[in-house]
């Protein structure tokens, strides 16, 4: 019988662990490699080639050289390559999910869900490739015609975080490839393994050399800064923290680069007095615990009407404390480790700060002993506004609860943040639902629902949560330019 350990060893052993540039696997120019850690054990899974700035330049050379040829490939053909890669991912769900769990930590069922969700972006954009449309119309004075065409923006640099090692990549690679852009991809250094497998699967699906160039590196700034300054690069798409996003936007300004930014969040989760509490608690579990709380769309602040706060807190704490913590590869564990020691200590520090300022610890709150970066599902009640976790992104399994007395107060609290990614709202009153949804300063709203991710929806934030949208009918626009031709008659 093959055990999970055998399968893990085999999945890691099978991977290409070099850089992928111009359709070839090659070691880093400096010969360097960096370790990839299993956050459940602290053990090193393997070492991966560590790209240098020279490798980054070679990747852009390759993307720039491939750009005209790739733009000329018929949209249907581009779409079919994405479709084949989608099918390969689905066929190999167990293997991809295992890699995600090994390098990122979440449970196998959650990783399988990410494979389904992440693969779907390739299918969705494969279908969108043939729908890119222009326009032909009469000019305003009637003496000419206006022809509008959409063209690929050009070589794109795609930078992704570790929290969804597959989906964060496919959400960018799918539309870029569908639109006819070539790419340089820099995955997070904590989770390069899923990216290496994805590059292999896309190549087997027929992606030509140079369209996708993959440069895992521990020197993110040094490798990407010269690329962002290079005039051949025409697009930067980044998912990660607002702090790094700001730095990249400053750099992109010098090259007047098209940018898409999916940045941090501080999602309010509002439970009104008239909410269906069963549905609110179910929604809270999804919005808080999906991806171990390590999600930009994770509920970060629970704002609960004072008349239902005790009941909501009791039910949420019962559900949270019933979750088993353990390695993601262990079939009985629902909650895996956080990504690294730094993140676990950050989460613990935020909880300690809230308790020191007067919050009540209802459950959890103590990191587990032993190897691995585990932190238990935690509920805090009576959290004061001064607590750091009301302003900072927690990125962990901690639910801080605060009460409110009126809709106006809930909205003022919800909007009192520089972030604007998503808000969750639970109410059975239609008028209140409309009024409060319209007043929420967020790019997305989960209305009586704890899950907003959907390939068919425009995912993205306002305020300091970002620029642009990924997925949906407009997702491909992020990788297209508009050219208009004034036609004389
Ligand atoms: P991060 O900003 O530290 O890193 C993200 C990526 O940027 C990584 O690949 C990293 O290597 C790279 N990077 C870091 N410094 C860089 C630099 N100076 N130049 C170029 N690249 C650099 O974020 P993280 O810790 O990996 O991910 C967590 C953050 O991502 C959270 O803030 C979360 O909210 C955000 N996130 C947002 C979304 C969204 O869609 N809005 C989705 C997932 C995660």
From TrEMBL:
CDD domains for the chain: ALDH_F5_SSADH_GabD
Keywords attached to this entry: Oxidoreductase
Sequence ranges assigned to domain Aldehyde dehydrogenase in this UniProt record: 25-485
Residues of the active site: 262
Coiled coil: none
GO molecular function, one term: succinate-semialdehyde dehydrogenase (NAD+) activity
Superkingdom of source: Bacteria
GO annotation terms (biological process): gamma-aminobutyric acid catabolic process
One Pfam match: Aldedh
Gene3D superfamilies reported in the protein's UniProt record: Aldehyde Dehydrogenase, Chain A, domain 1, Aldehyde Dehydrogenase, Chain A, domain 2
Similarity comment: Belongs to the aldehyde dehydrogenase family.
Protein name (database record): Succinate-semialdehyde dehydrogenase/glutarate-semialdehyde dehydrogenase
Originating species: Pseudosporangium ferrugineum
């Amino acid at each position: 019988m093959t055990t999970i350990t055998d399968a893990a060893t085999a999945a890691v052993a099978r991977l290409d662990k070099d850089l992928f540039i111009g359709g070839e696997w090659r070691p880093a120019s400096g010969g360097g490699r960096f370790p990839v850690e299993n956050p459940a054990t602290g053990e090193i899974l393997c070492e991966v080639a560590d790209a240098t700035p020279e490798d980054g330049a070679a990747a852009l050379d390759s993307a720039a050289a491939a750009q005209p040829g790739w733009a000329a490939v018929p949209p249907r053909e581009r779409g079919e390559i994405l479709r084949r890669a989608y099918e390969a991912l689905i066929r190999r769900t167990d293997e991809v999910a295992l890699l995600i769990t090994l390098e990122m930590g979440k449970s196998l069922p959650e990783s399988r869900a990410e494979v389904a969700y992440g693969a779907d972006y390739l299918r969705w954009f494969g279908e969108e490739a043939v729908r890119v449309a222009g326009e032909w119309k009469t000019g305003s004075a009637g003496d000419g015609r206006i022809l509008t065409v959409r063209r690929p923006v050009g070589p794109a640099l795609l930078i992704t975080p570790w929290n969804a090692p597959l989906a964060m990549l496919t959400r960018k690679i799918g539309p870029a490839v569908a639109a006819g852009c070539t790419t340089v991809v820099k995955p997070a250094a904590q989770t390069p393994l899923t990216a290496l497998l994805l590059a292999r699967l896309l190549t087997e699906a027929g992606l030509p050399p140079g369209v996708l160039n993959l440069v895992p590196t521990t020197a993110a700034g040094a490798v990407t800064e010269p690329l962002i300054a290079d005039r051949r690069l025409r697009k930067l798409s980044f998912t990660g923290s607002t702090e790094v996003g700001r730095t990249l936007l400053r750099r992109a300004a010098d090259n007047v680069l098209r940018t898409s930014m999916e940045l941090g969040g501080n999602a309010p989760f509002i439970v009104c007095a008239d909410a269906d509490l069963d549905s609110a608690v179910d929604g809270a579990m999804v919005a808080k615990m999906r991806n171990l709380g390590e999600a930009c769309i994770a509920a970060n602040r629970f704002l609960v009407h004072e008349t239902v706060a005790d009941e909501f807190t009791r039910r949420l704490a019962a559900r949270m404390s019933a979750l088993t913590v353990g390695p993601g590869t262990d079939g009985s564990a629902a909650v895996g480790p956080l990504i690294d020691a730094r993140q676990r200590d950050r989460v613990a520090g935020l909880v300690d700060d809230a308790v020191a300022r007067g919050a009540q610890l209802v459950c959890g709150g103590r990191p587990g002993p032993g190897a691995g970066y585990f932190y238990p599902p935690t509920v805090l009640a009576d959290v004061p506004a001064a607590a750091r976790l009301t302003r900072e992104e927690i990125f962990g399994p901690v639910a801080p609860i605060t009460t409110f007395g009126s809709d106006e107060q809930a909205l003022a609290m919800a909007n009192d943040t520089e972030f604007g990614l998503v808000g969750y709202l639970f109410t059975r009153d239609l008028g209140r639902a409309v009024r409060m949804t319209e007043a929420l300063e967020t790019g997305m709203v989960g209305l009586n629902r704890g899950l907003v991710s959907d390939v068919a929806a425009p995912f993205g934030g306002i305020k300091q949560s970002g620029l642009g949208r990924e997925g949906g009918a407009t997702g491909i626009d992020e990788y297209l330019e508009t050219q208009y031709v004034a036609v004389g008659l």
